[in-house]
Design brief:
By secondary structure, this protein is an all-alpha fold. Helix content is 34%, strand content 0%. The protein contains six helices and no strands. The longest helix is centred in the middle third of the chain and has 12 residues.
Length: 115
């Protein structure tokens, strides 16, 4: 068995909602192959601070697989998607449809990607 479950200070975070004692007992001793990341490290911001909304970070690609019992429901809850949702990428620019006015050129744009 792994270390005892830490106190989650961010009581209203998604970590507080989904990292339950049974989940902790199942995953607390798991260490990712890529960088030796643990669930304790992934949720450390929720255990150290009381103002986190999500409260979790992936340390490496393996985190999403190894801690899927935590990451999947948090990602689904945060984005409002079901567990059956499938992400598709289509980089074919010819399929972009829109109503951009060529007389109003874009001077700047900002794209934010969060995960």
């Amino acid at each position: 068995m792994g270390e005892p479950m830490p106190e989650i200070k961010s009581k209203h975070s998604l970590v507080a909602k989904y990292v339950t004692q049974p989940i902790w007992e199942k995953l607390s001793s798991v260490v990712t192959k890529t960088s030796g990341f643990t669930l304790a490290k992934a949720i450390s911001c929720a255990t150290e601070y009381d103002d986190q909304h999500c409260g979790i970070y992936a340390g490496d690609w393996d985190s999403y697989k190894d801690f899927a019992d935590v990451f999947d429901p948090i990602i689904q809850d945060y984005h409002g998607i079901s567990s059956e949702a499938v992400h598709t990428s289509d980089m074919d620019v010819s399929k972009i449809k829109g109503n951009i006015d060529p007389a109003a050129p874009v001077h700047s744009t900002r794209i934010r990607v969060g995960r």
